[in-house]
Write the structure tokens for this entry.
Amino acid sequence: MKALFYDGEPKLLPDYPSPKPLLGEALIRLSLAGICNTDLEIAKGYMGFQGVLGHEFVGIVEAAEEEGWLGKRVVGEINCYCGECPLCRRGLFTHCPERTTLGIWGRDGAFAEYLTLPLANLHLVPEEIPDEDAVFVEPLAAALEILEQIEVKPKDKVLVLGDGKLGLLVAQVLALQGCDLLAVGRHAHKLEILKRLGIATHIGEGSWERSFDIVVDCTGTPEGFVQALDLLCPRGTLVLKSTYHGEAEVDLSRLVVDQVTLVGSRCGPFIPALELLRKGQVDVASLISATLSLDEGVRAFQLARKRETLKVLLRP
Amino acid sequence: MKALFYDGEPKLLPDYPSPKPLLGEALIRLSLAGICNTDLEIAKGYMGFQGVLGHEFVGIVEAAEEEGWLGKRVVGEINCYCGECPLCRRGLFTHCPERTTLGIWGRDGAFAEYLTLPLANLHLVPEEIPDEDAVFVEPLAAALEILEQIEVKPKDKVLVLGDGKLGLLVAQVLALQGCDLLAVGRHAHKLEILKRLGIATHIGEGSWERSFDIVVDCTGTPEGFVQALDLLCPRGTLVLKSTYHGEAEVDLSRLVVDQVTLVGSRCGPFIPALELLRKGQVDVASLISATLSLDEGVRAFQLARKRETLKVLLRP
């Protein structure tokens, strides 16, 4: 099968072996996949991953022990866990130390004609949701994870920093909470998507001082983290949504003096994400910059790296 | 008056001018003061402070507009705020951007025969509490601040890292919550204080893996922070209690992947601290390593810097 493979640089392999589903797993034929910033970071060396890239997808179940799944359109949670370790027994499946993660850690990903995942990871996609929306379930779930971790109250002043793909989803999810929200980025055409939804936006630097109760850093850069800290009110909460290759210099004493709370936030709940898409409560279609064929996968990565690009989708 | 002054190194000034209380302030005659690690960090350049050192004290009100305060034995909260800025109006007095902080920022401290503080900062010391206990109210309040910020449940596995003065107070406060507590340090004679109170302790390295729901870093070093992170369970909470001079390298992606929460924690509530001391629910007397006269202030700092020393008190 065709697969977009990484072992130092992304490359298209025309005859990569099709995956064989293990007991309890499904074989899924790809319908559509999305390139995430994490994929771009992995292609810079983050996680030391080698294999088929990609973790955002929608596809059709082609093989599974349970016949009810056959032919069904699905999205899938990306962490595959042992189910037996102390963390799994506490329900912290996404933190299982034995886990593999689709296209990120120890498991071939979704940028290929076929992929496999445990049936326990799959969710049926309701008919009302087209593939072009369903492919956003994974990052939308990641945006929703913030609400699983912290309370966002209507009176909270909330800042979303970064107008990339994840930032635009995070801003839309937070806007639904009725909080006093501002989204700050560097690209008029990206912030325009939020503006159309009635969300307050700002381009470039501002003069807000340290007034935000909650800042969500979706910039994907160490500089963004420092800026986020500069805008956070004392006793405020800074949510970190970005993973990237490398370390940052942090003034820990400042966290203590300002009694700041930092919250690292990653994968989130799929079912509420599917519900938001089914009800049309978030606009993901506007985030699609281009849809390319897997054959053009290398070019798709080049395109996805450009600052002006939002989501690049891959079809098989 | 005698004062222990810092302007690059701590020095005893025999004829430093006595402070003049402003409107709403009290003139306080020192009874007893304590040297905190923050004082040692300030004497290394932290905060860029210049003036009389010291912020832990108990003393007698010698002058105040409100006569009811005269002759009263008091302890005092160390942050002096404007009361009018947006943060003060929200009750975040200890984060007032215009604040001065006793012996730390813009205000002469307590290592002198006299000091001044606003009456609003003072708390009467109940008769049952001797000076030797009352001088611990400020750091004990800082330990209690953890409980103002996070929930500590009986089933939580909690680790206190660091057996310095603050670590021993934090461990005692957390032990009262009935959680599954372990205190880890490097000094048998310090951990012995906790052992006598029935608290589980461990000296040196251990093999606990990443199993703690809550880790409180009281080590005062960037290395301690890294160790704390290594022992924290995914989705756990790391409380930072230490301020020190300089920055630390932090792998922010790890905070995201493990969905860790970092909580910076500083000054805390005096009234519950006084209550714990009045009821004898914490042992602070065992933390006193030495009591020296202000005249020996420079030597007291040298003594306080030694690893084996716990609290050094100063009497006028």
About this structure: Residues 137-149 of chain A form the longest helix (13 residues). Chain A has ten helices and 20 strands.
